[in-house]
Design a protein that fits this description.
Blueprint: H1 3-8, H2 10-35, H3 39-64, H4 68-95, H5 100-125, H6 127-138, H7 146-165, H8 167-175, H9 177-182, H10 187-209, H11 214-228, H12 232-258, H13 269-287, H14 293-318, E1 323-325, H15 326-331, H16 337-350, E2 353-357, E3 360-363, H17 365-389, H18 396-403, H19 409-418
Antiparallel strand pairs: 1-3, 2-3
Helix pairs in contact: 2-7, 2-10, 2-11, 2-12, 3-4, 3-5, 3-6, 3-10, 3-11, 4-5, 4-10, 5-6, 6-10, 7-10, 11-12, 11-13, 12-13, 14-16, 14-17, 17-18
Length: 437
Amino acid sequence: MSFLELFTDPLSRGPLIATLFMSISTALVGAIAFIRKKSLVAETLSHATFPGVAFGLLASFFFFSGNDLILFYLPLLFAFGFAILAQALVEKMLKEKKSADVSLCYILSFLLAIGVLVASYMQHSHVMLFKNLQIFFYGQAATMHDTHIYIYGALSLLVALVALIFQRAIKFSCFDPLFSSSVGIKSWIMKGTFSFLLTLSIVIGIRSVGVVLVTGMMIAPSVVARAFTKKFSTFLLASSLFGALFAFLGYIVCYLLENGAESTYSVPIGPAIIVISTLVAFISLLFAPSNGAIIKQMRKWRFQKSCILENILKFFWKTPCQSYHLIHLKKKQFASFSILLFALFKLVKQGYLKKEGLFEYRLTEDGKKKAAYIVRLHRLWELYLIEYLSSEVEKVHQSAELIEHIITPEIEDKLTKLLLNPKVDPHMQPIPIKEVL
């Protein structure tokens, strides 16, 4: 099947397009929940819908004779009601001075337990209803059809319009509630709008990925988007796009596995989407350009290496000897033997040191200029701390030892002008003049 046929074939377009729309809406609302630190609220509401679905299925059977249309909509209506009930119970517990995590976890387990009790009753008395209940609990995106496309499309449009129209109010209410109130933004309106969209997204999403996984559809795209973006509007857009991408990839993986040459089993779409999105989120947390864990560690290592190189140059500049052997440098405890050897090799390659013999080194003219500039930054910062921050003379050295490695030429120029081009530091040591490196 070609790429275009996936979106036009009667068997594939329903699950694919409906899941795409559902992922966009849930990811967008999940992004707001992520910023507002309400992810656990979403988890609580998703589990709170389970007893609502169970009671809705029983009501459709007893009062509407199991009509197929009612069998789909009534459980969702009951699920929406139970999600609202869960929020009301949480608010009540918060007013009773209970902590947020205790309240959320308690309501989550309480309502889920009710759902399990009802489900156990249905398992023996109403077997067909129990099978329908499992669809909502685990999700069954593969059985969705064109009707679900319209439902999820309308939901995505609603959520997108609300996010677009109230973007400024949402941003202020998320990051600075006091300021948003001062400029006339009603906090209770924004809170109610967010709660409605969150509940609606969860209720609609459980048909596709189920009660236990819908929160993952909301939060995983936000985790990935947050690793690559900082601007709020870009974050919302990126979360939606990542949600759609994960949904598409999940469907493609399921389609390929199910239609392989030796395929003998079906792969559920919802769990596949969650696994893919979680893997991407984990990778983004490690390798994101700005704040990935591995990238940050690499920057930390580069900075530490730079500090070692500059400290070695300062040592050569401050001591009268023309050259030093590797063993003597090791006694100064700049770093381990291997790191020190690498640092000396690097300084030689940069032209700041020159080898005099086997593991014997001395400063070059460029090395003297570089070392003098580092000392200049150190002593300028000490003088600034004394004159403008009223620090004690005995305590400024340690601070300058750290700051000297991160002072930029622009900051150095500002310090020079602010201190009126000083000649000596607080310890009456001369401040080297600035030379062209």
